[in-house]
Amino acid sequence: MAKGLDVGTMNVLSARQEGTDTVFVQQRNSFVEIDHSDMAEQMLSRSDVLHIRKDDTVYVVGDDALEFANIFNRETRRPMQQGILSSDERSAIPMIKLITEQVVGEPESPGERLYFSSPADPIDSDLNTLYHQKTIRSFLEDTGYDAEPINEGMAVIYSELADDNFTGLGISFGAGMTNVCLSYYAVPVMKFSVARGGDWVDEQTAQATGTPVDKVTSIKEDDFQLDFTTDVGGVEGALSIYYENLLDYVIDKIAAEVNEEDVEEGLDVPVVVTGGTSSPRGFEKLFRDHLEDAEIPFSISGVSQASEPMYSVARGALVAARSDEEEERQQREAAPEPDE
Ligand SMILES: Nc1ncnc2c1ncn2[C@@H]1O[C@H](COP(=O)(O)OP(=O)(O)OP(=O)(O)O)[C@@H](O)[C@H]1O
Ligand SMILES: [Mg+2]
Fold first, then answer.
1. Are residues 165 and 261 in the same domain?
2. Do 189 and 55 share a domain, yes or no?
3. Which residues line ion ligand 2, judged by CB < 5 Å?
4. Residue 171 belongs to some domain of the structure
5. Structural domain tally of the chain?
6. CATH number of the domain enclosing 192
7. Is residue 314 one of the residues assigned to a domain?
8. Centroid of ligand 2 to alpha carbon of 306 (angstroms)
9. What is the pLDDT of residue 140?
10. Index of the ligand 1 atom closest to the CA of residue 224
11. What is the pLDDT at residue 339?
């Protein structure tokens, strides 16, 4: 067996294969701190509430954090920001450890292969992903996995471009970041991230309209469409403006970062977009239109959208882990038996 894990700023998801089905387990990458004395014990005795208690403080972690935050009038906090462990959050490490362990579970056998997504270093900020990557890897290895990082954009290619021989441009529009990777026959030739994604859209919209960020996020996630016909002056109008700005920003960076030499002559590159931020109706068309208008140094065969944008990265990490495992099995079988 093998597993894939998507460690995202907003969502942590694992993927594993059961027969012909891929099974996903998901948690919000979020927690809330509550005084134990404020809390009736039976609230936590619901066995599925993920939490830890430290002295007189209880941390409710994952999907339940929001509900507890509302009940106790607290703010949720996030272990990650802009794609990596947050340096401003002192509880980041124990919280994300709990979340990832719950999502991946125990390995089925010691040393089970696991690929986890890790962003590329952003080109528009000083953030560096190394500490994040090493920290996540060490938790997973402590749990008994043989864990390897996989670039988030590359995971998109494994998940969505199998029919194109794992060749193309994969783009993951997440919460904290947007990750871009160009691959030839499953070899990444160029990758980068920008430290902007859905959170940036939410923050800008909140500032522009004087609306609380959480309110903006829920309006955005609840049937918002990128059709530019409604609500000029309202939250949806502002969301459209910042969405368009994010797309143009990412397209500009693609134009600047991909060199002509990166792309084989005569190849038309398939482009696939995914990630939670690509969910609204109209996103794929808007991205395609803006990419067509941009001056980019290579030719594109088409733009498609992943059918399940929240699952692509975990699924791609699983594809990579399974293919590694299969390769190892073949090597073992091909190796001559040791002499008796
Ligand atoms: N239906 C929806 N419409 C618009 N945005 C959505 C929708 N569902 C989720 N999102 C947004 O998608 C983002 C989360 O996407 P995703 O889970 O791909 O990010 P992540 O992997 O956690 O973050 P990152 O890759 O940046 O670390 C959030 O900004 C969330 O608000
Ligand atoms: Mg992501």
1. yes
2. no
3. 8, 174
4. yes
5. 2
6. 3.30.420.40
7. no
8. 13
9. 97
10. 3
11. 65
**Domain residue limits at 42:** 30-77
* Residue 177, pLDDT above cutoff 70: yes
Q: What percentage of the chain exceeds 70 in pLDDT?
A: 98
Closest ligand relative to 306 C-alpha: 1
Please count the other Cβ atoms lying within 10 Å of the Cβ belonging to residue 289.
Answer: 12
Task: Find tokens 């362990």 and name the residue.
Answer: 101
Q: Is 108 in the pocket of ligand 1 (CB under 6 A)?
A: no
Which residues touch 158 (CB under 8 Å, ≥6 apart)?
A: 150, 166, 186, 315, 316, 317, 319, 320
Q: Of the residues 10, 43, 77, which one is the last residue of a structural domain?
A: 77
The pLDDT confidence band at residue 144, using thresholds 50, 70 and 90, is very high
Instruction: Find out whether the beta carbon of 149 lies less than 6 Å from any atom of ligand 1.
Output: no
Looking at the structure, do residues 165 and 56 belong to the same domain, yes or no?
A: no
**Distance from Cα 199 to the centre of ligand 1, integer Å:** 8
For the segment 203-211, the average pLDDT, to the nearest whole number, is 97
Angle at 208 between CA 202 and CA 209, to 5 degrees: 90
What type of residue is 251? Answer: I
- Which phi and psi angles does 336 have, rounded to 5°? -65, 145
User: Measured between alpha carbons, how far is 311 from 275 in angstroms, rounded to an integer?
Assistant: 8
Is the Cβ–Cβ distance between 15 and 315 less than 8 Å?
A: yes
Ligand in nearest proximity to the CA of 275: 1
Q: Give the pLDDT confidence score for residue 3 in this predicted structure.
A: 98
301/166 same-domain check = yes
> Does residue 266 lie within any of the structural domains?
yes
Q: Is the CB of 122 under 6 A from ligand 1?
A: no
β-partners of residue 172 are: 179, 274
Q: Which of 56, 77, 98 is the last residue of a domain?
A: 77
Residues 61 and 191 reside in one and the same domain: no
Mean pLDDT confidence for 190-216: 96
The answer to the question of residue 216 being in a domain is yes
